[in-house]
Structure formats: structure tokens, C-alpha cells
Design brief:
Layout (H helix, E strand, L loop, with lengths): L3 E3 L6 E4 L22 E7 L5 H14 L11 H13 L4 E7 L5 E11 L4 H4 L2 H4 L11 E8 L8 H15 L4 E8 L4 H8 L4 E12 L2 E11 L4 E4 L3
Parallel strand pairs: 6-7
Antiparallel strand pairs: 1-3, 2-10, 3-4, 4-5, 5-6, 7-9, 8-9
The structure holds coenzyme A.
Coenzyme A (COA) binds next to strand 6, helix 5 and helix 6.
Length: 235
């Protein structure tokens, strides 16, 4: 894989079901911290070398945001176990790497899919698959997580990660992806992110978590993978 230049409103990458909802057309310019600045980004599989950066990105959100319901910081060993479990189960975990003008590379975000629940009907797990026709591998339901470094938000990194993880999901014949998004007054940007990229809000679960001295609702966003096509501004 090679580094690609990316910029917010000029390089939007979308994915959508084959029947576009209309919400997916066009570009969505927003204020940028450094408007117009192009950056080089590479998307690749996560490795143990990325873990320190992932810890930093995650801990910043744990300490300051309801986007994760974790309340205690994670460390490298925690993330090593998490990545190893994902990899063992065959779930994809991708990272975004930024190269600065000197060529120095920094991990600035990640996106992974993971098991939604353990019961077999959600997963068509390997145990079941070994006894069923291969077509049953299309039954899988997975959950998505994605975090980008705050200094790099609004530069299409999240969109690139999403596009790449959807290709991985399709390769694995997953059927549907759920994004569980805390519905916080401060979270309208992150909710819109999913809707504008083809996820549909199926419902909001009330007061599922309690963080920063308040109850937090969770929106359940769903993307069906069957018939999904990927679109960029160019096509
Ligand atoms: C959700 C998230 C991954 C998006 O990442 P990103 O790299 O900013 O993604 P993009 O740049 O592709 O798109 C971000 C959207 O915010 C807009 N935006 C512009 N400037 C922005 C800024 N300074 N900060 C955040 N978003 C900005 C972008 O234009 C884009 O708008 P659109 O949805 O209307 O197209 C990121 O905000 C994040 O890590 N949030 C915290 C974790 C989280 O909530 N994860 C989701 C649940 S697991």
C-alpha cells in the first residue's frame, strides 16, 4: 500500500447501499483546524508497533468523552491483548499512518470490527461453520469502532478508514455492521458521520451508561453489507 494525500471537503470518500438514500450525495464542508492542508495517509493492518499511539488516542477519549463507556485508562498490555484477540478471531483492525514532511510516520487513528455478541446465531462461528454450508458464513453481525487523533479530525481519515474496513468486511462475507454511538449533546458530529456514510439509526437505547455524572443514551446505527458499493467523489 502507498501513502495517499487526503483533505477534507475535496477528497470525501463515501460508501452507500446500492440504493442511495440521498443523504450521501455531495460534500459536507466543515470548519477545519488547518483548512486546505493536505496530509499523506496510509491505511494498513494494525501491528504491535501501533499500540503506544492507540493507547494515547484511546486514553484521551476515555478521559474526556462519552464516545467510549470505559472510565479507566488502558495500557499497552491491555491493547496488546485486545489486538491479539481480534486477530485470532479473524476480525480486521486497520490503522491510519501519517507521514510528515520529513517522512516521520505517526499512527493517527484506527478502525476495527469485532464480535457483537457471543451467541452462535449472531456469528455463525467457526464451530458452526464447520458443520454448515459455506454460504452460512454470510450470517455474521459485527460491531465497528473507530477513533482518530483529535488533531487530525475532519481530514477524511475516518472516511478512509471506514472505506477500507468495509472492504475487509465484504471479503469476510459479514452481513451487517452495527455502530453503537453515545447520543450525547456534544456528539452530533459523530452521529452524523455514520448517517452520511450509509448507516441508519435503528433506535436509541435510553440511559445505557453513566459517565461524567450524567446518564448517556446510545444510538444503534446499522449498515447492511449486501449490495454495498463504495463511492468516491470521482465515481
Ligand atoms: C468519528 C470520528 C472517527 C471521525 O473521524 P474523522 O477523521 O474526523 O473523519 P472524517 O474527517 O472523515 O469526517 C469527519 C466529519 O466531521 C467534519 N469535521 C470537520 N472538521 C472537523 C474537526 N475539526 N473535527 C471533527 N470533525 C470535523 C468532517 O468534515 C466530516 O463531516 P461529514 O461527516 O459531514 O462529512 C472521530 O470524530 C472520532 O474519533 N471521534 C471519537 C470517537 C468516536 O466517536 N468514534 C465513533 C464511535 S466508535
Amino acid at each position: 500500500m502507498e501513502f495517499e494525500e487526503t483533505i477534507s471537503s475535496e477528497d470525501q470518500t463515501f460508501c452507500s447501499p446500492t440504493k442511495p438514500t440521498g443523504l450521501l450525495e455531495g460534500t459536507f464542508p466543515k470548519p477545519l483546524s488547518s483548512p486546505g492542508k493536505r496530509i499523506k495517509v496510509l491505511i494498513r493492518d494494525a501491528t504491535s508497533e501501533d499500540l503506544p499511539a492507540l493507547v494515547d488516542i484511546f486514553n484521551e477519549e476515555i478521559a474526556t468523552s462519552t464516545c467510549t463507556f470505559r472510565m479507566r485508562p488502558v495500557d499497552i498490555e491491555d491493547r496488546r491483548a485486545w489486538l491479539s484477540e481480534l486477530t485470532k478471531d479473524g476480525y480486521p483492525c486497520l490503522v491510519a499512518i501519517h507521514a510528515d514532511d520529513t517522512g516521520k510516520e505517526t499512527t493517527i487513528g484506527w478502525c476495527n470490527l469485532s464480535r457483537y455478541r457471543y451467541q452462535e446465531a449472531y456469528n455463525a462461528c467457526d464451530f458452526i461453520l464447520s458443520r454448515l454450508e459455506s454460504s452460512n458464513s454470510e450470517r455474521r453481525t459485527v460491531e465497528i469502532s473507530m477513533y482518530t487523533h483529535r488533531d487530525f479530525r475532519g481530514r477524511n481519515i475516518g472516511s478512509k478508514l471506514l472505506k477500507a474496513i468495509l472492504l475487509e468486511a465484504q471479503k469476510r462475507n459479514y452481513r451487517t455492521i452495527l455502530a453503537m454511538v453515545a447520543a450525547d449533546p456534544a456528539s452530533s458530529d459523530r452521529e452524523r458521520f455514520w448517517v452520511q456514510r450509509g448507516f441508519e439509526l435503528r433506535g436509541t437505547l435510553r440511559e445505557l451508561g453513566f459517565k461524567f455524572d450524567r446518564w448517556v443514551d446510545v444510538g444503534v446505527y446499522q449498515l447492511m453489507l449486501e449490495g454495498l458499493v463504495h463511492r468516491t467523489k470521482d465515481n
